[in-house]
Each structure stands twice: as C-alpha cells, then as structure tokens.
Amino acid sequence: xxxxxxxxxxxxxxxYLLQFxxxxxxxxEYYYSEVIMSLFYVDKNAQDNGDHEIHTATCSHSPGSKxxxxxxxxxxxxxxxxxxxKIYPQSNGCYYCSYSSYTSESK
Length: 107
Ligand SMILES: [Zn+2]
What we know:
Blueprint: H1 4-36, E1 38-43, E2 52-56, E3 68-74, H2 77-87, E4 91-93
Parallel strand pairs: 2-4
Antiparallel strand pairs: 1-2, 1-3
This protein binds zinc ion.
The site of zinc ion has 8 residues, from loops.
C-alpha cells in the first residue's frame, strides 16, 4: 500500500511533468513560428524591366544585404511584397525564393 506521502510525491511529479510538457509545447510552437517566418529584403537596384526584386535573407540570388532594404520578417512573400511596394512601387517577387509573388513575364 502506498503511503500518503508517496501519493503526494506522485502528484507532485505529475504536476511537474505537465508543466514541463506545456512549456515544451510552447517552445515547439515558438520554434515553428520562427521556421516559417523569413527575413525579406528588397533590392535597391531595379532590374532591367524596372522591378525591384524581393528576396529572403538566405536566397542565393539576393544581391546582398548591403544592396537591399530590409523588409522585416514575413510568413509569406506576399506580405513582404506589400512592404516592398511601400518603398518601391514597382516591386516583384524573386523567381527563385519568392516564386508565388513572382509576376514578371520577361524571364
Ligand atoms: Zn531571391
């Protein structure tokens, strides 16, 4: 037969595990939100067709952060494109990293 102090100890451990589980879920959700948020940039220099292309920070076709204006973190390139259009009305998604916002027909 478990004594009363054993029972209390077990309840204490379960409460501890539940707390841990909740914080672990929180960290996973936070981590997940970090994964889907990307830092976007818009090219300061226009393309031949006048478009200022937006890129994610990790895009290999980005001209480099020094040649770009930072647009902040976005979950989708469509909202990054809206932010870019406030700086450069003629902005466009990158063919490589922001294809869903890419509208140019010249490529
Ligand atoms: Zn790109």
